[in-house]
Specification:
Blueprint: H1 3-7, E1 12-14, E2 22-30, E3 34-44, E4 46-51, E5 54-55, E6 94-102, E7 110-119, E8 140-149, E9 154-158, E10 164-167, E11 170-173, E12 177-181, E13 200-201, E14 203-205, E15 211-215, E16 221-227, E17 230-235, E18 238-254, E19 259-268, E20 286-292, E21 296-297, E22 304-313, E23 321-330, E24 337-340, H2 343-357, E25 360-361, E26 364-365, H3 377-390, H4 394-406, H5 435-447, H6 450-470, H7 499-521, H8 524-545, E27 546-547, E28 552-553, H9 560-566, H10 572-585, H11 594-604, H12 608-616, H13 623-628, H14 654-660, E29 663-665, E30 674-677, E31 687-694, E32 697-706, E33 709-716, E34 721-726, E35 729-732, E36 736-741
Parallel strand pairs: 6-15, 12-20, 30-34
Antiparallel strand pairs: 1-14, 2-7, 2-10, 3-6, 3-8, 4-5, 4-7, 8-9, 10-13, 11-12, 16-23, 17-18, 18-21, 18-22, 18-23, 19-20, 19-22, 24-31, 25-26, 27-28, 29-30, 31-32, 32-33, 33-36, 34-35
Helix pairs in contact: 3-5, 4-5, 5-6, 5-7, 6-7, 7-8, 7-9, 9-11, 11-12
């Protein structure tokens, strides 16, 4: 639908003054009997919305983060050296989310009033920790209250020049930092009889012509639970609190009823040796509140990522405390189960689940909740098969696919490294930009929605044009366009894998997915050309990186042999060397992509016991170390790290389900209509159980070793074509419970 279909003759409105975070209200009369009423709402920024004094929803951060509209340089300040020049000439896509609410029960006979509190959100994020600005413009809102009367007529009450505005209590409304003055809060501003005679007229803005308007079906951020913090230190005018787990949200601060005191809260993920917040791991996360006499205080329009926080006040510190932390994330649930006899494997599963959930915000699979909060295409596509399988996340990823589509330059085919774009964010053409191919394909396999492939196919081919134009000697790199070119990011040791090696391997894998898409869509004319490109790039990898004497690629370091084997390169020595090395080494030495590819190849090639050693390793770079350190969320790197809350190293969790439990779709199956259960019974696993909620229903698998035999139980829903395969034996399964002793 276009703008007019949602909003009729409405316009975007905002303040005109030097304050950017206004109250906005509109009065209107209803003089007929109401049958139904629907609010269509857009915030370019974040908003709270009210009707006749009542908050319409407890959803947070309305509306989701998108590529709202074209940015212009004077709203887009950036540090010297950042890659901004080409961005402004890119032909991108632009989208705005439209939220819909049933407001029938909130309307009055006679006079009504609709009210909005508008903050910056991702539209006007202001300054981040790198002192960069990426503003889209002044925060704005647009609304249409569409009322249907019992006599069959319809009336629309819309945002226009008749709205009025006033300065709100928000001093700074940034996604990165919030400052509020409670003394300026007007609690009754949305009541119909509120006196707004001193309010000002609004600025009126036409909708962005370049933007698409999409109905928002994405799960909203909500307060999902509360945690109780512990006071761990009082010194130097501060109270320091600790949580038992890393989280996202905000603390609720309690005080006496003093007026005019300033409360400063800082947030971090580590304490230093003196028990104070470690400044580096605070990432400049801070909020400020000036009190108005109420006794409960918290921020409203952003979230922080933290396990520790400090409270300072200009008032009496003895009267300040905190009993509750509100945990905020997207309203998405874990629909999977996994448990085995090995503690560290259970830790990895549980910790990934917590980390991933805490990184679903504002319609994005975020990289982290505290430093950048962005939809990196590398992290996002790497984890997308897991995110689709383990959570009720279909609508979030469907929305994110639209973001990925938007961030491709229609002229060159270049795909930015974050979706939505946040210019100068790092990434590479293989592991990040290839999301334009991989993400729609993963979504299709999970849900069988062919229209997604049809929509993306021209963009996939355009991306191939870009890569082929940028490649040097058929190795994937960036040399014409000014952009980052990372390889296997965040490996534990130097030297890291050569970026062209990692990027070319990842690109070849994406080309194979593109061939599969071409076959699904019947685009046979492209298949021969794509196969030729694969052969060309594989030859370039062999010519540059293969050692004929040893059978290794890049010295068999950091999973390099696994990268090659994953795309069909190498000889029998390549696999033997890979297994021998990691059977002896017994741990990961890989970065973001290798940590997924390495166990994948070992499992697929029959070396499951070696793969399991990676999971259970006690090396310096290991999940066991994180467990021993008390980490409750996954880290951004194996050792010293910026972020303690990054889901990217959770990628190996996929193989707990696909290999150890053995739940996989058959070739050419989509939406789990045809399934094979092919579990790997490993030396150190004595019992394991788990389940996935698929589009066809829940599939459960468990096995336990007993008296030199293995007892299997498989439960499948009705309507699935399912086969059990173990030790060369194949058995057709019936719906319901199936039991075997082998």
């Amino acid at each position: 639908m276009n703008f007019e279909q949602y909003f009729k003759n409405a316009a975007y409105v905002s303040s005109l003054g030097n304050y950017y975070f206004p109250y906005i209200r509109k009065k209107f009369d209803i003089n007929k009997q109401i049958k139904s009423a629907t609010l269509y709402f857009s915030a370019l920024g974040f908003a709270e919305i009210y009707l006749n004094g009542k908050k319409i929803t407890e959803d947070k951060f309305i509306t989701p983060h998108t590529m709202y509209n074209k940015q212009i340089p004077n709203e887009f300040y950036i540090n010297p050296g950042a890659f901004d020049e080409e961005y402004f000439s890119d032909e991108l896509g632009y989208s705005i989310a439209v939220s819909r609410f049933d407001v029938t029960d909130l309307l009055n006979d006679g006079l009504n009033a609709f009210g909005v509190i508008l903050s910056g959100g991702w539209y006007y994020p202001q300054c981040d920790k790198y002192l960069n600005y990426r503003n889209f413009g002044r925060p704005k809102t647009c609304f249409n209250i569409q009322v249907t009367y019992t006599d069959g007529t319809e009336e629309n009450f819309v945002s226009d020049a008749r709205c009025s505005c006033y300065e709100s209590f928000i001093i700074r409304g940034s996604i990165f930092r919030e400052e509020i003055d409670e003394r300026k809060e007007i609690h009754d501003f949305s009541l119909a009889d509120f006196d707004d005679s001193k309010w000002m007229r609004v600025g009126v803005y036409a909708p962005p012509k370049e933007s698409k308007f999409n109905l928002n079906t994405c799960p909203a951020d909500k307060i999902v639970k509360h945690l109780k913090p512990e006071l761990v230190k009082v010194a130097d005018g501060k109270k320091i609190y600790a949580l038992k787990e890393n989280t996202t949200g905000y603390p609720i601060i309690l005080t006496d009823n003093s007026v005019g005191d300033t409360i400063i809260v800082k947030y971090g993920e580590e304490l230093d040796a003196d028990g104070n917040l470690d400044e580096f791991h605070c990432y400049t996360q801070e909020s400020t509140c000036i009190t108005d006499g109420r006794t409960e205080h918290h921020i409203r329009f952003t979230w922080y990522g933290f396990q520790y926080f400090s409270i300072e006040t200009t008032g009496n510190l003895d009267t300040v405390s905190c009993d509750s932390v509100a945990v905020i994330r997207a309203d998405i649930q874990n629909t999977s189960e996994f448990k085995c006899n090995i503690d560290v494997v259970n830790y990895l599963y549980d910790t990934y689940i917590r980390t991933q959930l805490l990184n679903y915000h504002c319609g994005l699979p975020c990289d982290c909740p505290q430093i950048e909060k962005r939809g990196y295409t590398g992290d996002g596509q790497l984890l997308m098969p897991l995110g689709l399988k383990l959570f009720d996340s279909e609508n979030l990823y469907r929305k994110w696919l639209n973001d990925i589509s938007d961030v491709q330059d229609r002229k060159s085919g270049f795909v930015h490294n974050t979706a939505p774009v946040y210019v100068s964010c790092a990434g590479g053409p293989g592991g990040w930009s290839a999301a334009i191919i991989n993400a729609p394909y993963y979504f299709y396999l999970q849900y069988g929605d062919k229209s997604v492939l049809e929509r993306f196919y021209p963009q996939m081919l355009k991306f191939v044009e870009f890569i082929e134009d940028e490649a040097v000697d058929s190795l994937v790199t960036i040399h014409k366009r000014k952009a980052h070119c990372l390889g296997d990011w965040s490996g534990p040791y130097k030297p890291y894998l050569p970026e062209p090696f990692a990027n070319t391997c990842l690109y070849v894998d994406a080309l194979r997915n593109l061939i599969a898409v071409s076959e699904i869509l019947g685009e046979k004319k492209e298949i021969q050309r794509l196969n030729a490109l694969i052969d060309e790039h594989k030859k370039a990898i062999n010519d540059k990186y293969f050692d004929e004497k040893t059978g290794n690629y890049c010295g068999n370091e950091q999973g390099s042999n696994a990268f090659a084997l994953d795309i069909g390169l190498g000889d029998e020595r390549t696999l033997i060397n890979l297994n021998e090395k990691y059977d002896k080494y017994g741990g990961f030495d890989t970065g973001i992509f290798g940590t997924k590819i390495l166990p994948k190849i070992l499992f697929e090639k029959g070396y499951g016991d070696t793969a399991l050693k990676l999971y259970t390793s006690e090396n310096e770079a290991s999940f066991k170390k994180w467990m021993d350190w008390g980490e409750t969320t996954l880290r951004e790197s194996w050792f010293n790290t910026r972020s303690h809350n990054h889901p990217m190293f959770g990628a190996p969790v996929l193989f707990l389900f696909e290999q150890i439990l053995g739940i996989r779709q058959k070739k050419d199956s989509v939406a789990y209509k045809s399934v094979i259960i092919n579990p790997q019974v490993l030396r150190d696993i004595t019992d394991v159980s788990g389940s996935l909620l698929t589009p066809q229903g829940r599939i459960s698998v468990s096995y336990a070793k007993k008296d030199k035999k293995t007892e299997f139980t498989v439960v499948i829903p009705d309507g699935i074509d399912c086969e059990f395969n173990y030790g060369g034996k194949e058995v057709k399964l019936n719906s319901g419970k199936n039991e075997f002793v082998l």
